[in-house]
Amino acid sequence: MSTYLPTLKQLQYLVALRNYGHFGRAADACYVTQSTLSAGLRELESLLGVMLVERTRRVVRFTTLGERVADKGQRVLREAEELAALAKAGGKPLSGELRMGVIPTIAPFLLPRVLARLREDWPDLKLYLREETSGAACESLHRGQVDCVLLALPYACGDFDHAELFLDPLYVAFPPGSAKGLPATITPDLIEPSQLLLLEDGHCLKEHALGACNRPELRAEASMMGTSLHTLVQMVENGLGVTMLPHMALQAGLLDHTRVVARPLDAKNAARRISLVWRAGSPREKEFQLLADALRRGAGESGDDRKAA
């Protein structure tokens, strides 16, 4: 075995620079100065005898080999973290730090009601939350930037294990006065394709809405412009179209002080499965199951007690 091996700190610097594309932001993420990060990368390049990063005043450009080393470094760092997690899991469960990603169509509507349960059940847990779109959250999970993600399934998130918490039905939201004469539940054929407003790409709710309707013309003609559910509600109230909203958002008061009317969607897959997901084979699986139980109980006590079918 070679005496001279890259250190985890050097690999951390390299991966951070690849993730952020900027020396200053990468240094901030690693809690070091920019000069310390630059020196560590130069040491790594000297150790390996190759150039990994092309440095210019305006851009940071990885060499082809640098990209491959960064990919391998990311896997090494994740394995090192899981080694530490394996040791921690053998001690007191759900104690110390845990980084959880949460998607924007869940975070503001569910977390305020379940965090109290988590604090009560696991007072030694230091939970750090990271709100990202579904696509970005899954990428953060597989890069090791978060330990688990509170996600809505189905969604293509790579190789993961999960625990389902509850079902979250979808509703169709109409502008003021436009729902008159419509039935109490809305079937997909009642939705005008050119009027459907959806979230931007990267949000799993867009795919859930289109999947539940199962109408190809909706995917072709729907407007995908909303950056948040609050933005979609404002557009609907101003008569720009209709949209899909999850029950948990309605329960949290998203439509309070608006004239928007929401009715249940009557379709085969008219609900998303709120789940806690983590990397497949993680040594912390038992901890994540405990966390899922606490989230499930907290949601049930808040009214989100619909069991996953």
TrEMBL record:
Keyword flag Transcription regulation: yes
CDD domains according to UniProt: PBP2_OxyR (cd08411)
Keywords in alphabetical order: DNA-binding, Transcription, Transcription regulation
Spans traversing the lipid bilayer: none
PROSITE patterns in the cross-refs: HTH_LYSR
Any Pfam family hit: HTH_1
Protein name: LysR family hydrogen peroxide-inducible transcriptional activator
Organism: Sphingomonas vulcanisoli
